[in-house]
Amino acid sequence: MQPSYLELYNSGRLEKCAEALYERLADCTLCPHQCRTDRINGRQGKCRSGVAPVISSFSAHFGEEAPLVGRHGSGTIFFTNCNLACIFCQNYDISHLGRGEEISFEELAEAMIQLQKRGCHNINFVTPTHMNYAIVKALLVAVPGGLRLPLVYNSGGYDAVDILSILEGVYDIYMPDFKYMNSETARDLSGAPDYPERAMAAITEMHRQVGDLATDRNGVALRGLLVRHLVLPSNIAATDRVINFIANLSRDTYINIMDQYRPEYRANECFNLKRGITLQEYDDAVNHALRCGLTRIDGIRRQTNWK
Ligand code: SF4
Q1: I need a labelling partner for 215 at 20 to 30 A (CA). Which of 4, 70, 109, 194 fits?
Q2: Mean pLDDT of 190-201
Q3: Quick one: which atom of ligand 1 is closest to the CA of 33?
Q4: pLDDT on residue 304
């Protein structure tokens, strides 16, 4: 199966996509924050980013979801900075403190090619929302350089539908978080009170573009949607409502219900975030997903007391 960006490249539409994204950078509306700052001329918005890509690392990663990892790993490229300001971020040195190195579009393309040479099954862009222009510019170099792996859009879920529309055909695999279905929590923990409605709209658009997850005969992802949800203490993420939305989208949505929350960064500023989750809280989340009829729940292998 050929990645969908090949058709975009061959038809000249990938170049047009880059142009459309560049126009947005001058008055940045690349994400729902709509900072309207001129990133082309050195101004920065909430993501504290310019035009050039800044990355903290790239490598074959074996800790991602099984359909992305396969046998040879997911080719992850971690972008520095983020359009969300989550106070419990587990990668806060990269996302908030700016650890990383600025590289050229050509070097970003070369990183993709290197990951393909290492045998990775995909190129997995971690925190891509504020870097979509750089990704498409690098793709224009990587495709004639031989890149043929599917691209994974691994975002926090705070994405703008109109930008996703411009990007249609660039990414074969979308893997957004759906963090919370509660506006106050989204405001207090991530600085984005409209997160729930934005994430619902974005994930609906992602699903429209790529559908449910499709894999090859070895279970390796080819195309489709995966959703991540991190269970938080005392159900402050409104996990049950997040799951209701996912189940309504499609009961065959691949969902990773994650149990690894631990207090990091500024989590101690929020009373409810000062502890990890209990086994009961995690069981409640998984049991709710099962009751909703979801059929592809990652993480369900790890424990046994689900009904
Ligand atoms: S991508 Fe960055 S500058 Fe642009 S709207 Fe989002 S947070 Fe603001």
Answers
A1: 109
A2: 98
A3: 5
A4: 46
Judge if the beta carbon of residue 37 lies within 6 A of ligand 1. Answer: yes
pLDDT number for residue 138: 98
Domain ranges for the chain, please list them: 5-45+55-298
Average pLDDT, the chain: 95
The pLDDT score that the predictor gives to residue 265 is: 92
24 C-beta closer than 6 A to ligand 1:
no
What is the largest distance, in Å, between two alpha-carbon atoms of the chain? 56
Helix (H, G, I), strand (E, B) or coil at 106: helix
5-45+55-298: CATH topology: TIM Barrel (3.20.20)
pTM above 0.85, yes or no: yes
* Residues 6+ away with beta carbon under 8 Å from 84: 156, 158, 190, 191, 192, 195
- Specify which residues 57 forms β-bridges with: 78
Going by alpha carbons, the residue nearest to atom 3 of ligand 1 is 45
Which of 22, 29, 35, 40 has the most ligand 1 atoms within 8 A of CB, as the residue to mutate? 35
Q: How confident is the model at residue 270 (pLDDT cuts 50, 70, 90)?
A: confident
Q: What span, in angstroms and rounded, lies between the C-alpha atoms of 229 and 244?
A: 12
* 248: number of Cβ within 10 Å: 12
Q: What is residue 194's predicted lDDT score, i.e. its pLDDT?
A: 98
